[in-house]
From TrEMBL:
Family: Belongs to the helicase family. UvrD subfamily.
Protein name: DNA 3'-5' helicase
Broad class of enzyme this protein falls into: isomerase
SUPFAM superfamilies on file: P-loop containing nucleoside triphosphate hydrolases (SSF52540)
Origin: domain of life: Bacteria
Binding site for ATP: A29, G30, A31, G32, S33, G34, K35, T36
Alphabetical keyword list: ATP-binding, DNA-binding, Helicase, Hydrolase, Isomerase, Nucleotide-binding
Name of the gene: uvrD
Assigned EC number: 5.6.2.4
One Pfam short name: PcrA_UvrD_tudor
Length: 727
């Protein structure tokens, strides 16, 4: 096949970007104009045509999923010409790339070899614990705010000693908390998400030899979703690029939606100034949405003042108008969405191509109810993820302590789980020791035992705990990962503890623990983790996974997610619910013009996810926080062009006024007495094989079963449709 065919399937502008001579490029373009496509093709072009070695290429994406997809696409594009070997190419998120650097240079980064990643929940626990230890009042100094402060400062690239607090007493305290927290993390070998970036930056900055090595290696750096990079990420890229690397960045200022998390859209301007001879390429043709959808998006975003300015057009069809549905209340809204999805299915649509988007997670529950009642399978991105569940985190904490004794967060979590009769008083002695002697909890325990600082019962219990961890390590050191996981779960006492927990909950926890063994068995060490132990690689995977949305595993299901996590994705049929002032735009943003603009960009992102049909819903009454309130349609609806939108009239029906009590007596999630399904029952499914029921929701025809299939993962299925065979 002729290599120039690589350019087929691109328009002139895209082609210009993909085949441009080596240099610095900024591809600035609106939603759905092919930015991600251009980046992917560009990499293929560099390898196939410019003969660039794949190991000199680094590509940065916004999620791990997008990274996997990009690698796959490049591979299949190149496979038409040659046998690609992309082993040496680095594709990943900023976090995963920073992590990789730190693993390779842990000594220079002043980290222990087995340093562990703290996800945001771990971080909050640790901060909470430390603030208590240092007598901070939670009311005046909320731990959540402390986490926000710490992360924000790290994203700015600042260490406690670099923060000017101008003698502001409140800020002085935040800085002190940051310092206390950081000291413990450093002693324990713990790295939170923002620390990954800052550490990697400091590593490169302070070790010229290492920096030079990577500068020489990565001559081609490509970055997607550039508008959402923060200060430290930008500084990091600048440092790594040095004088000679060639960059292609793609982004859309109108889709900058992480300002609240420190993202700086100005980085686009900085890029133009800081890098040599940047050529700007603008794409304006949209390939994703119908004209009606696109015009709505264009007109909406035109209300923002600070824009780089670009207008999208499409050669595609006009399509159906954007629908606006005024629901009586949130139940009506939910039933409407469910009925529309059924219509969509009747018309030959596929569930996978359908998405429901919302401003915040709490809006999903009522919709879930309605979907279950209508037998529509769904999947929530970013719901409670497997690796975030209590029992799983307990088991992982044992594994973490085995891998690294200095891991204070893991130590805290399990020192008295299962109960070992250790009281807060004993633990406080240890915590105080950590503070006074600047040591970790593990070291403090040994010290306290050796120096007889504890009551004898407590000392014995702690001594046994230490022995337990040591022997778990010894006994499992030769085992493969899954056997090690299984052994640790069974011999730590966790298994027995959860076995004693009554009812379904305990059973589900046991099943989940078993699923963890399956997960360990299925775990394949990624190519970039060669030099890590299997255990560390697995623990890393678990932490990074907990920071990201889950992938859709259901065979076919509606996708539900927040507007933020929909970035970069596309669906034929999209619903955006809760289009009400105070919800979207959010209440906090109503009075602050800058924030309102960010909300509008979020609406722009939402609208431009739709390919064929878009429906916006709002409820005139909504119950939130157990209180019913009258709501008004989102101001964003009023900003849409009348010519492209249409109010929905329900055919032949009078507007339904829902009687709440009538609906709620019939509510779901009630105990499932009528059905003959039982948790723990083994079943067989035509496609997924054998599995065990681990959870039941709904009743009669609406019963949904959560089943752990051997080797296929955990899935939700509608009992009446799944054709399950009982075993
Ligand atoms: P977003 O801003 O939402 O991330 P994007 O600019 O990255 O969007 P892509 O996701 O790359 O856009 O492309 C949008 C859709 O248009 C995809 O389905 C893509 O395959 C398709 N597409 C892009 N360019 C072309 C083209 N030249 N011909 C046909 N389809 C195209
Ligand atoms: Mg994209």
């Amino acid at each position: 096949m002729d290599i120039s065919e690589l350019l087929n399937g691109l328009n002139d502008r895209q082609r210009e970007a993909v085949s441009a001579p080596l240099g610095n490029y900024l591809v600035l373009a609106g939603a759905g104009s092919g930015k991600t496509r251009v980046l992917t093709y560009r990499i293929a072009w560099l390898i196939a045509v410019e003969n660039i070695s794949e190991s000199s290429i680094m590509a940065v994406t916004f999620t791990n999923k997008a990274a996997a997809e990009m690698r796959h696409r490049i591979e299949s594009t190149l496979a038409q010409y040659s046998q690609p070997n992309l082993f040496g190419m680095w594709v990943g998120t900023f976090h995963s790339i920073a992590h990789r650097l730190l693993r390779s240079h842990y000594l220079d980064a002043k980290l222990p070899q087995d340093f562990q990643i703290l996800d945001s929940e771990d971080q909050l626990r640790l901060v909470k614990r430390l603030m208590k230890l240092h007598h901070y009042d939670e009311h005046n100094f909320p731990p959540k705010q402390a986490c926000w402060y710490i992360n924000h400062k790290k994203e700015e690239g600042l260490r406690p000693n670099q923060i000017e607090h101008y003698n502001d007493p409140q800020e002085k305290q935040w800085v002190r908390i940051y310092q206390i927290y950081q000291d413990v993390c450093d002693r324990s070998g713990l790295v939170d998400f923002s620390e990954l970036l800052l550490r990697a930056y400091k590593l490169l900055e302070s070790k010229p030899v290492i920096l030079q090595r990577y500068q020489q290696r990565f001559q081609h750096i490509l970055i997607d979703e550039f508008q959402d990079t923060n200060k430290i990420q930008y500084a990091w890229i600048k440092l790594l690029a040095g004088d000679s690397a060639k960059l292609m960045i793609v982004g859309d200022d109108d889709q900058s939606i992480y300002g609240w998390r420190g993202a700086k859209v100005e980085n686009i301007h900085h890029f133009l100034q800081d890098f040599q001879k940047v050529k700007k390429i603008i794409l304006e043709q949209n390939y994703r949405s119908t004209e009606n959808i696109l015009q709505s998006a264009n007109q909406l975003i035109a209300n923002n003042e600070k824009r780089l300015g670009k207008n999208l057009w499409t050669a595609g069809e006009k399509g159906e108008p954007v629908e606006i549905y005024a629901a009586f209340n949130e139940l009506d809204e939910a039933l409407f969405v469910a009925s529309q999805i059924n219509l969509w299915l009747d018309e030959g649509g596929k569930l996978d191509d359908c998405a429901i988007l919302y401003r915040s997670n709490r809006l999903s529950r009522v919709i879930e109810d309605a979907l279950i009642r209508s037998n529509i399978p769904y999947r929530i991105y970013g719901g409670l993820r497997f690796f975030e569940r209590q029992e799983i985190k307990d088991a992982l904490a044992y594994l973490r302590l085995i891998a690294n004794r200095q891991d204070d967060a893991a130590f805290e979590r399990i020192v008295n789980t299962p109960l070992r009769g250790l009281g807060e008083r004993t633990l406080d002695v240890l915590r105080t020791l950590t503070r006074e002697r600047q040591i970790t909890l593990w070291q403090a325990t040994q010290l306290a035992i050796n120096e007889n600082m504890l009551a004898s019962r407590a000392a014995t219990a702690l001594f046994r705990f230490i022995e337990l961890i040591n022997s778990l390590e010894q006994d499992t050191s030769e085992m493969p990962l899954f056997a090690q996981t299984d052994f640790v779960i069974k011999h730590s006492g966790l298994y027995q503890m959860y076995q004693q927990e009554k009812g379904e909950k305990g059973e589900v926890r046991i099943e989940n623990l078993e699923e963890l063994v399956t997960a360990a068995k299925e775990f394949v060490k990624p190519t970039d983790a060669e030099d890590m132990s299997d255990l560390t690689a697995f623990l890393t995977h678990a932490s990074l996974e907990a920071g990201e949305e889950q992938a859709s595993v259901h065979e076919s299901s509606v996708q539900m997610m927040t507007l933020h996590s929909a970035k970069g994705l596309e669906f034929d049929r999209v619903f955006i619910i809760g289009m009400e002032d105070g919800i979207f735009p959010s209440f906090q943003s109503l009075e602050i013009p800058q924030q309102l603009e960010e909300e509008r960009r979020l609406a722009y992102v939402g609208i431009t996810r739709a390919k064929k049909k878009l429906t916006l819903c709002y409820a005139e009454n909504r119950r939130l926080y157990a209180k019913e309130e009258k709501h008004f349609p989102s101001r964003f609806i009023a900003e849409l062009p009348e010519a492209n939108i249409q109010a929905v009239r329900l055919r032949g029906t009078v507007r339904r006024a829902y009687n709440r009590s009538a609906v709620s007596t019939n509510r779901l999630f009630i105990e499932n007495e009528l059905s003959d399904w039982k948790v723990g029952q083994k079943v067989k499914h035509a496609k997924f094989g054998t599995g065990t029921i681990i959870n039941i929701e709904g009743s009669e025809n609406n019963t949904r079963l959560q089943i752990a299939f051997q080797g296929q993962g955990i899935k939700w299925l509608i009992a009446s449709l799944a054709k399950l065979e009982k075993l």
